[in-house]
Amino acid sequence: MTTASKITMVRVAFIPVLMVLMGMSGGCTNIWMWLSLGLFIIASITDYIDGHIARTRNQVTDFGKFLDPLADKLLVIAAMTMFCQWGMLPAWAFMLVLTREFAVTGLRLVAVGKGKVIAAGWSGKVKTASTMVSLCVWMAFPGIYWLSWIIICVIVVTTIYSGIEYFVRNWKCLWD
Q1: Where are the alpha helices (H) located in the chain, listed in sequence order?
Q2: Nearest Cα to 84, choosing from 124, 125, 27?
Q3: Which of 40, 41, 97, 164 is 20 to 30 A (C-alpha) from 34?
């Protein structure tokens, strides 16, 4: 297993710890939420680090191509699940994010079945980064109502935009 893949595995291992810490916070600003935020930031940074190592050290593997985006999705979904559980994230917004993730993954699977690879698009990277930053802000200031709605809007808009872009750019994969 490559160094990059080991770092990605650490990110996956952080996910249940993150959920326990967030759960202990109860959705309030306290030591547990600050620990959650710190862990989430570290996990988010490992996304950049493992990708950088994989590219610069020629450690790009099929396993890494599979696990890295999965780890990102699971990390974000874990944090969003907690906000949804606390009633801070509307279920419709959470479902929209999940639907986009499943739809894009399905599109990629169809493309792979036809011998095509759909690389991560710029809008998908922006969506991931803005969602991770938004979740960090939310963990730092969970009780501010107006800020919560700005965060929800950022997540929803970037999710919809990137999902549409993936399908517009790759719709031929579904019909060829």
Answers
A1: 3-25, 31-56, 62-85, 91-113, 122-140, 145-170, 172-175
A2: 27
A3: 97
Rg for the chain, CA atoms, rounded: 17
**Tens-place pLDDT, residues 101-133:** 999 989 988 988 888 877 778 898 899 999 999
Nearest to 118 by CA among 154, 163, 73, 157: 163
Q: Is the dihedral of CA 99, 16, 47, 26 positive or negative?
A: positive
Determine the Cα–Cα distance for residues 161 and 170; give it in Å rounded to an integer: 14
Q: What global pTM score does this model have?
A: 0.91
Contact present, 22 and 32 (Cβ < 8 Å): yes
What are the tokens at 12?
């996956």
Q: Answer for the pair 137, 147: CB distance below 8 angstroms, yes or no.
A: yes
Q: Return all residues near 105 (Cβ < 8 A) that are at least 6 apart.
A: none
Helix axes 145-170, 91-113, angle to 10 degrees: 20
CB atoms within 10 A of CB 105: 13
